[in-house]
Design goal:
156 residues; alpha+beta; 4 helices; flat
């Protein structure tokens, strides 16, 4: 009798697994969009004026920048995006905005440049290795290389 119960439970296993997968997929459909970074709204950006606003004004209106130029701190960048999570796949990018604000030598906004998702470009990665100097050691040379050196560590 117990074999019959076990058999009927095992026959339900694919049905339970399928129902669980469907429920997970449906739950993911209802996930809200997520904003990452500092996605500056148009209302706040309109308060920053070229030739008038200073670094302090920009920091007060837009907050601290996401990043500052590596070699020149007169460039501030505000980077943000809105993502829609998707089950078993990469999230869909709904909106992306990158603001580049350049200050002159007195700390006043010189130029505001905006890039959106439409300006994005795909970057193709190159798969290659950087050669290093020295000789190549085989697996067996590595394994046998320390023979005879054991037991002398730490003794003077």
């Amino acid at each position: 009798m117990s074999m019959v119960r076990l058999s009927s439970r095992l026959s339900r296993l694919p049905l339970i697994a399928g129902a669980t997968a469907v429920l997970l997929a449906l739950a993911a459909c209802g996930m809200p969009a997520v904003t990452r970074g500092n996605l500056v709204e148009d209302t706040r950006l309109s308060l920053v004026q070229e030739g008038v606003s200073t670094r302090d004004d920009v920091a007060y209106i837009l907050g601290t920048p996401t990043t500052v130029g590596t070699f020149d701190d007169s460039n501030w960048y505000y980077i943000g995006q809105t993502l829609k999570p998707r089950t078993f796949r990469r999230p869909e990018i709904l909106e992306r905005r990158v603001l580049a604000i350049r200050f002159d030598e007195t700390g006043v906004v010189e130029e505001i440049d905006e890039m959106t998702l439409e300006d994005a470009q795909e970057i193709e990665l190159v798969e290659r290795e950087t050669p290093t100097l020295g000789r190549t050691v085989t697996f067996w040379e590595q394994m046998l290389g320390n023979l005879g050196r054991g037991g002398r560590g730490g003794e003077d």
